[in-house]
Amino acid sequence: MSSRRKVLLKVIILGDSGNQYKATIGADFLTKEVMVDDRLVTMQIWDTAGQERFQSLGVAFYRGADCCVLVFDVTMPNTFKTLDSWRDEFLIQASPRDPENFPFVVIGNKIDLDNRATVAKNALAQESEADNYNEFPTAITLNKQENTNSKGGCSC
Amino acid sequence: MAALDPIQEKVVYSVTHTYIKVKNGSNKEEYIYGTLLMLEKPDGCHIEWREDPTHVDAVNDSWDFINADAVSFTYSNSAAELTDITPTAARTEGSCRMINQQKFHNPINFHVDNLRSFKRMKGKLVKNSCIMFILDCGTSHPPIYFPKGGVTDKFLHHLGKKVIITQSATDGNRFLVSPHQQEALESSFDALNLFADQGSALSRFAADPVRGTFTAFAKVSKLLTNTLVASEDKNSVPPEICDQLRISVEENETDFSAIHSTQPEDPDFLFIDEKAQLPEVEKKPRGEPLKRAVWEKFFDAEGRVTNPEELKQIIYRGGVSHDLRSEVWKFLLSFYSWDSTTREREEFRKTKVGDNNERLHQLNDILMTFVMYDFNLGYVQGMSDLLSPLLLVMENEVDTFWCFVGFMNLLHSNFEMDQEGMKLQLNQLNQIVQVADGQLYSYLDDHESSNMYFAFRWLLIVFKREFFMDDIMSLWEVFWTGLPCKNYQLVIATALLCQCKGDIIENQFGFNEILKYINDRSGDIVLSELLIQSEALAEQLITCTNLPSYVRKIISPGSQSSATQPSPDRKPARPTSSPRKRTAES
C-alpha cells in the first residue's frame, strides 16, 4: 500500500444564488480527494446560507479557509456585479493572514444556457478588464453545469 | 485527479442486494438497491457502494418480493481469483443521485484510511442488519442494509485485515477504526475476536443480558468518572473559590456578573453542573394519535372545543391522525380560535377566502402573499420549508396561508434581520446542554462548538430538514401544543444532541466534523425515540429542584422566548383588521 500523505484544503463558495427553495441553511460541506503531484489533497468545499441576514453566522465557517470561490450566474449580470462585495465581505469576516495574496477563484455558472448567457459574457469580458481582478491571484473559469457545483469547474 | 483505470481495481469482497433508504419526491421513504464492495486499488483499499441499475425503480417494501435465494456473496482470497468489475453506465457518477430534488446522498466511495468508525446493527433491533460508515471528515453515510438473513460479519472480517478495529467501550454497536501502521495484521483482528461465536461483548450480551448490561454500565460510569476528574483537573479552580462561587450563586442568583468576571470566556459551568442534579424519570411510551371519534367528543352543541388543554395533551403525547390534520392544525396554528363556534368559523373563512382567493394559488403565490402581508420581514430562506407540509395537509391555499401566518407568528424572530431570535436560541441551547449533560458540554466547548452553530438548521425551521414528511408533521403538532414547556424545541435539540454524543466524542470530531455529522443525521433520526427522550428530559428539567434560574426561565411560561405561543384568544369573530396593521402589532 502506498503511503497517503494528506493535505486538507478548505474552500468556501460564495455568490448570489437564484431564488431556490432548497437553499442551504446554516452551512454544509462536501469533501473531494484530488491528487496534486504526489500529494493527496482533501478539498473541503463549503456552502453557506446566502442571504445577507445569515452572513453574520458565516464567520465561524470561514475560519481557516485556504481558498474562496466566487460564483456568478452568467445569465444574470447582477450576480457578477455583487462578487466584489462578496469578496470584501469574505476578507473582513475570515480575516486571512495575507489578504493581499489570498487566492480567489471566479466561476461563471450556467454557460450552457447559451442564448441567455451572451450578454453576460460580454459584460464579463469588459468588467474583468476594467476591474482590478488582475491584481488578485484570480483565475476565471466558466462552468457548464447547471444547478450543480460539486464536480468539475475547479482549476486553481 | 484521483481517477484510476477501472482495470486496476480488484474486488476483494462484495455483497449484492444491499439497500439504502432515501426520500422520494413526496418525501416518503424509498429503497435503492446496490452492491457493497471492498476494492483493492493501486493506492490501497477502498469501500464503495454502487447502485444496481436493475433495481433503480424498486420502491418501498419491494424487498419482500425478492427471493432471498437470489442473494449472492462473492469473495476470493487468492489474487488469481479476483474478479474485475466491468464499468457500467450506472457508475460513471458513482452512486450519487438526486431523487426528485428531495434527498441527495453523497457517493459512498472512500479509502479505508478515511474511515473513522462504523456502527453495526444486527437483526432483531432493526429489520435487517445494517452498517453505517463514519468518515474522518464527519461525513456519515446512510446505513447500508444487508439483505434478509445477510450478515455483516464476513464483510467486517475482511475489513479487519485492512484496518485495526476496536469495539467502543460505551456502545457495543460502535467500532472505531485506525489504520494499520505496517502490513495488515490479521492477528490483531483475531485477537479482538469480535465476530466469533464466543467471547465477543455482543454475544456475551445475548447470552446474559443482565450481566452484560451491568458490565457495560460499569464501563460507562468508569469513563464518566475519569472524564469528570480529568476536566476538573483541567479547570484547576481552587476548592475554596468553588465554594465561594457556589455560595454566591445560592445566595444571590442575579449576581452572575461575579462569576463571569472570574472566568470571562468560560462561565464555570462545572459548579452549576454539580449543583443541578437532574432527577431520574421514567421514560413514557408515545401515545395514540388523535382519532376522529375522540376529536368529535371535544365539541359542544355549537361546535366549540370544550377542553382545549386536554386535547393538546393528547396531541402532545401522540400527534394527530393524518385525516384530521387539516382540521386540527387550523386550531393549533391559531387560524381558528378554540372557543369559536362552527358557524363563526364558516363566516370567518368566507371573509378570508373573499379577501384573498384570487391571489393564492401555489406555494409560490402563498409566499408572495406573505411577503406582502409581512412586508418588513420579506422572503427569507427557510420559509418555504415551513410552508410545504402545510400546503400538503390543507385542502386549499387560503387555509394554508392563514396557518402559515400562525406558524410564522411562532417563529418570527428566527427570520428577522438582526437574527436576535436565533442567537438567543443558540445561547439558550448552550445553557440547557450544560445542565443536561456536562460531559457532552465540556467536549463541545473544548472543540469550538459550544456556540451550537451546528444546531442552526434544526432551530431555524424546527427540524424540517431532519425528517421525512410524516415525521415532521408529527413533530410539529407536538411543538404547536406548547407542551410540556416553553421552548420545547430546545429540549428536543438537547435530546437529539445527546443521541449524537457517543459518535461525536468517540470519533473525536472537531468543529467541522461535528457540523457535518449533525447535517448527515437528516433522514436517520427515529422520531418516536427522540420524542420519548425529549419528554423525559423536559420532565427532568421541570422537576429538578436546583435547576439554575436562568435555565428555568428558558422553559417556564411567561419567560422571554424566541418561539412564543400565539395568543389563544384571537377570535375569528373579529378578524378583519388589515394585514398590515396586524404586522405592526406583532
Automatic annotation (TrEMBL), chain A:
Keyword Mitochondrion tagged: no
Keywords from the UniProt entry: GTP-binding, Nucleotide-binding
SUPFAM superfamilies: P-loop containing nucleoside triphosphate hydrolases
Domain of life: Eukaryota
Coiled-coil region: none
InterPro entries given in the database record: P-loop_NTPase, Small_GTP-bd, Small_GTPase
GO molecular function: GTP binding; GTPase activity
Keyword rRNA-binding among UniProt keywords: no
Short name of any one Pfam family annotated for the protein: Ras
Family: Belongs to the small GTPase superfamily. Rab family.
Record protein name field: Rab7
Automatic annotation (TrEMBL), chain B:
Signal sequence residues: none
UniProt entry keywords in alphabetical sequence: GTPase activation
PANTHER family: LD27216P, TBC1 DOMAIN FAMILY MEMBER GTPASE-ACTIVATING PROTEIN
Name this protein carries in UniProt: TBC1D15
Record region (Disordered): 557-586
Entry superkingdom: Eukaryota
GO MF, any single term: GTPase activator activity
GO cellular component, as recorded: cytoplasm
Coiled coil: none
Biased segments, Polar residues type: 557-567
Residues in Rab-GAP TBC domain copies: 319-483
Native organism taxonomy: Eukaryota, Metazoa, Spiralia, Lophotrochozoa, Bryozoa
